[in-house]
């Protein structure tokens, strides 16, 4: 092993694609995970009305329009197709390995008249924001970011996470690699 051993390089070499290295297994299609996260609680903010092309938005509606279009063109559902089994297949603005879409978008609000303080999940299947955490989280975000001054000059922050099982179900050890690629595409859209 070379003196300049890199764990990242080791992982890359062990998980890169070549046909002889892939496990020969059957995928359990009946147990495919949902590409959407569901919350049983929360207040929904519908963003669909703000996708229209009308030009007479009020100042408040224009803010909603900017947020709606930003989220839609970053990770919204852009195409719906029907599979051979009659189930719908959805495609989003950012590509995903195997159409599994492990990435999730969260919006953290410092607290504005538009969006009260708290944590919101972007729900692409409904094109809405779900406010599911009312508590003040902005100070925790600032602490996590080492009190970076940028957070003093803004009211919202976006955070991406991933549901690992969505990719691991199909890609096993290569899931982490796929999640990084998928999240990179999403961040590129941002």
List the helices and strands and how they pair.
Layout: H1 7-15, E1 43-46, H2 59-75, E2 77-82, E3 88-92, E4 103-109, E5 118-123, E6 128-133, H3 138-144, E7 156-162, H4 164-171, H5 175-189
Antiparallel strand pairs: 1-6, 2-3, 4-5, 4-7, 5-6
Helix pairs in contact: 4-5
Query: Helix count?
Result: 5
Number of domains: 1
Question: Which ranges are low-confidence, i.e. pLDDT below 50, for 5 or more consecutive residues?
Answer: none
Q: What spatial form do the alpha-carbon principal axes imply?
A: globular
- Using only C-alpha atoms, the radius of gyration works out to 20 Å
The CATH class, by name, is Alpha Beta
Largest sheet: 5 strands, antiparallel
Mean pLDDT: 91
Summarize the structure.
The protein has 5 helices and 7 strands, in the order αβαβββββαβαα.
Describe the protein in words.
The protein has helices spanning 7-15, 59-75, 138-144, 164-171, 175-189; strands spanning 43-46, 77-82, 88-92, 103-109, 118-123, 128-133, 156-162. It is α+β, with helices and mostly antiparallel strands. The protein has one domain: NADH Oxidase, CATH 3.40.109. The strands form two sheets. A five-stranded antiparallel β-sheet has the order 1-6-5-4-7. Strands 2-3 form a two-stranded antiparallel ribbon. α4 packs across α5. The longest helix has 17 residues, at 59-75.
Notable traits:
190 residues; alpha+beta; NADH Oxidase; five-stranded antiparallel sheet; 5 helices; 29% helix
């Amino acid at each position: 092993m070379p003196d300049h051993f890199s764990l990242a390089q080791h992982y890359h070499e062990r998980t890169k694609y070549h046909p002889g290295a892939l496990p020969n297994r059957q995928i359990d299609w009946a147990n495919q995970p949902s590409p959407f996260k569901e919350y049983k609680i929360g207040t929904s903010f519908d963003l669909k009305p703000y996708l229209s092309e009308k030009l007479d938005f009020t100042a408040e509606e224009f803010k909603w329009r900017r947020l709606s279009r930003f989220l839609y063109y970053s990770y919204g559902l852009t195409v719906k197709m029907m599979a051979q089994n009659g189930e719908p297949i959805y495609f989003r603005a950012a590509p995903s390995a195997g159409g599994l879409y492990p990435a999730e978008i969260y919006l953290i609000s410092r607290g504005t008249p538009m969006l009260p303080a708290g944590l919101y999940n972007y729900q692409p299947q409904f094109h809405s924001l779900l406010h599911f955490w009312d508590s003040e989280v902005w100070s925790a975000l600032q602490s996590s970011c080492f009190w970076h001054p940028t957070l003093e000059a803004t009211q919202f922050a976006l955070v991406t996470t991933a549901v690992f099982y969505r990719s691991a179900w199909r890609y096993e050890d290569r899931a982490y690699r796929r999640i990084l690629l998928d999240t990179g595409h999403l961040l590129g859209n941002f």
